[in-house]
Structures are given as C-alpha cells and as structure tokens.
Amino acid sequence: MVSQRIIHGLYAVTPDISDTNVLLRRVRLALQGGAQVLQYRNKTADAALKLAQAQALGQLAREFKTTFIVNDDAQLAAQVDADGVHLGGEDGSVAAARALLGSSRIIGVSCYNRLSLAHEAVRQGADYVAFGAFFSSSVKPGAVKADLALLQAAREELDVPIVAIGGITLQNAASLIETGAEAVAVITALWNAQDIEASAHGFSTLF
Question: What is the DSSP letter of 117?
C-alpha cells in the first residue's frame, strides 16, 4: 500500500460486467495503456460478486502500481485493502469513511456542479473532488451539467486534485485538463473503444 497516491491522469471507472474474467482482461488493457487511477464501480452486482471483483481488481492494480478506488462503499474498500473510496451524494460522510479507512487512505467526493459542496468536502477532509457531467453522458443521461467556469473557479479556490467526469472523450478532454482537471474519469470512451489499450494511451498522453 502506497498511502495518499496522487490522483492524476486517466481515471478509469469500470463498466458493469458480471463476468469477472472478462472484466479483468479489459481492465488489464486499460492499465497497460497508462490508466493511473482505477475505480471499481458496478451498480448491478450483488455483494458477493462485488467482493470477488474488487479483490481481483485490487490485485491487478497493485501489479501495475495503479491507485485503486472503490465506488460508494467504504466498507468494501476497507475489506479489499483498496487505496481509497469515492463517495457520491448519498454514500455517507467523509468523517464516517475516514473513521473506517484511517488517515492514509484516499477519500474522493462527487460534487456535481456545486463548488460549495467541494469546499465542504475539503473542509471535512476529502483528498480530491470530482465535478460533472461536463458533456452528455450515456452512463448518466440525466446528470446535472457542469461547465469550464466551474472548473476554473475550483482550480483557483481548492488545494486538492480535481477530477472531471461525464461524457469525456479523446476529443474534448484537453479543454478540461487545460482548465484545471488533474484527472479525467472515463467510462464509455474507454471501454467501448475498439482498442482499449490505445484509447487509454491516448488519454494518458494528454497529461
């Protein structure tokens, strides 16, 4: 465990795949392509499958020395010795996650399009914040929209890494990075690519 790894570069968020072997093969390609952060997210799996997949992905992330984050579930993050957890608006407090995970783990918080949420998350001890959706997202078509002005303000006012998410592609990611995103969280444009490794490499070279 390398505590407090930097949140930077391509932040790969896993798709909902029930076949763990298929998931691992696809994630390996993304890590070979240069993904620097891996988040395990599966909204359809039961608890047993989530545990098995999180354990396997954690081992793979360690092989590549990639920061491994678990979405939503601080208990699962602790159970599989992940580097940290990412909390959405209804996933509990930063304080509760910190009490469970300890001071050396990473806690990220979704702040959607609200800078005030980010300030509060940082005040509570969040290690990074995420804003979005910046573009139309097939994963969350009804997501609130964030803009570059918000990203610029966040970069000026916050001292933690900022992650951008939502409809990010190789064609539009550069504007987010130039405005202040230290990382771009990608799902569809990565996993639906004909060549996952090449897509990951393309995103990584933007940094």
Answer: H
Kindly state the helix (H) or strand (E) to which residue 86 belongs, with its residue range. Answer: strand 84-87
- What is the CATH T-level fold of the domain 9-205, as seen in this structure? TIM Barrel (3.20.20)
Rounded distance between C-alpha atoms, residue 17 and residue 22, angstroms: 8
Catalytic residue among 5, 105, 110, 199: 110
Active site residue 155: no
Residue 45 preceded by cis peptide, ω within 30: no
**Cα-based distances in Å from 9 to 24, 26, 86, 162:** 20, 18, 16, 11
Q: Give residues with Cβ within 8 angstroms of 80, minimum separation 6.
A: 51, 54, 55, 58, 70
- Does this model's pTM top 0.85? My answer is yes
Question: Could you say which of 5, 26, 41, 98 is catalytic?
Answer: 41
Burial class for 132, CB neighbours closer than 10 Å (0-12, 13-18, 19+): buried
Segments making up each domain of the chain, as ranges: 9-205
pLDDT in tens, 142-191: 778 999 999 999 999 999 999 999 999 999 999 999 999 999 999 999 99
- Residue 41 a catalytic site member: yes
Q: What is the dihedral of CA 203, 105, 42, 30, to 10 degrees?
A: 30
Q: Which of 62, 114, 140, 155 is catalytic?
A: 140
Task: Tally Cβ neighbours within 10 Å of residue 169.
Answer: 16
Handedness of CA 153, 158, 159, 162 (dihedral sign): negative
- Sequence-distant (≥ 6) Cβ neighbours of residue 122 within 8 angstroms: 129, 158, 159, 160
